[in-house]
């Protein structure tokens, strides 16, 4: 596409966003923290997905709408995709980034408490993306911070922006979210992406299957919560439901969350998606994974039309551009 055409389309998209914003919708996002996916109504989620789609075009050339704004990425736990896509998103929008991804190099290593770290960084940044091993860290940060906090994964609790990426990918690949049969397989107990995604899906008219070894079943309170809204079936094996599902969301066993390493050793390799297992799957079944993958999806699947996890990774950029833009772009 010609550069001038891209620019024209981009400015049309921007004015469309602004028109919707003027109707009062986007204003609700300004300076807002994201702690849980439950912070959003279904309408707000759909609006973020719509803005993410607009960002696909904006990402091609970049823009300057967040010039002068700074994103701090405070990552107390390892990350590849979440941190890098947040940083890339900020830069595509004309902003800049600061932060750390190795606690060893921050003053936390000297014993500085978490709240003091937040009270420091809020002076240097307009928004903070936080990843932490402790559940509740994002809530505490929000309480003390004068700038918005984005929960970028806290303990086994939630990872709301990943759920938005997952929804966006489902919608983009299947052209709908409603009326799909979706299975989530893996570590449903400790997987924070699972908790956010299951809660997000409960807003739609979907049939959900939760597949895990008994020891890794989803917590009772979350199950109860989503069962109040949609049809949910728990299973131990994926084989018998495979022929009827449209989306298979695979997760790794969260080794680092196990209090007892021998428990992990017992469960390691408990499930694996390979060509053989997929023989009975629908032709247009899509497979998603928040990544990193360990051994739960055989690499032979990567070449099949089922595999959409690398497209999912790519969508992370657009969705995080949308989130940063909605929270920080005060021109809207
Ligand atoms: C996930 C996480 O950190 O919770 N990764 C991600 O952000 N895409 C999933 C995982 O670590 O298994």
Please describe what this structure looks like.
With 332 residues, the protein is of the alpha/beta class. The chain has a domain at 160-313: Aspartate/ornithine carbamoyltransferase (Rossmann fold, 3-Layer(aba) Sandwich). The chain contains ten helices and nine strands. It has helices at 3-22, 42-61, 81-92, 114-121, 137-144, 160-174, 192-201, 220-227, 261-267, 309-328, and strands spanning 70-75, 96-100, 127-132, 149-154, 181-185, 207-211, 231-235, 247-250, 286-288. Strands 7-6-5-8-9 form a five-stranded parallel sheet. Strands 2-1-3-4 form a four-stranded parallel sheet, sandwiched between helices. The radius of gyration is 20 Å and the shape is globular. The model is unreliable at 1-7 (pLDDT under 50).
């Amino acid at each position: 596409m010609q550069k001038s055409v891209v620019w024209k389309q981009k400015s049309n998209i921007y004015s469309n966003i602004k028109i919707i914003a003027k109707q009062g919708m986007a204003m609700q996002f300004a300076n807002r923290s994201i702690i849980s996916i439950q912070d959003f109504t279904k309408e707000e989620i759909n609006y973020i997905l719509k803005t993410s789609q607009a960002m696909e075009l904006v990402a091609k050339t970049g823009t300057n709408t967040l010039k002068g704004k700074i994103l701090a990425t405070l990552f107390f736990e390892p990350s590849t995709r979440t941190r890098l896509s947040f940083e890339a998103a900020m830069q595509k929008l004309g902003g800049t980034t600061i932060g750390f991804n190795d606690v060893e190099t921050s003053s936390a290593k000297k014993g500085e408490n978490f709240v003091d770290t937040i009270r420091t960084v809020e002076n240097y940044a307009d928004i903070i993306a936080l990843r932490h091993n402790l559940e509740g860290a994002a809530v505490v940060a929000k309480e003390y911070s004068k700038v918005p906090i984005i929960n970028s994964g806290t303990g086994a609790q939630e990872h709301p922006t990943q759920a938005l990426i997952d929804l966006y990918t489902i919608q983009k690949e299947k052209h709908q979210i409603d009326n799909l049969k979706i299975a989530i397989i893996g570590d449903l107990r400790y997987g924070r992406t699972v908790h956010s995604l299951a809660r997000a899906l409960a807003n739609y008219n979907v049939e959900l299957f939760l597949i895990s070894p008994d020891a890794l079943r989803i917590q009772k309170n979350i199950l109860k919560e989503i069962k109040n809204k949609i049809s949910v079936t728990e299973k131990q094996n994926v084989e018998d439901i495979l022929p009827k599902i449209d989306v298979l969301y695979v997760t790794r066993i969260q080794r680092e969350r196990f209090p007892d390493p021998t428990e992990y050793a017992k469960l390691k390799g408990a499930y694996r998606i390979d060509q053989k297992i997929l023989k009975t799957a629908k032709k247009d079944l899509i497979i998603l994974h928040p990544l990193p993958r360990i051994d739960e999806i055989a690499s032979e699947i990567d070449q099949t039309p089922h595999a959409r996890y690398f497209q999912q990774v790519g969508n992370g950029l657009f969705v995080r551009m949308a989130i940063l833009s909605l929270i920080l772009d005060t021109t809207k």
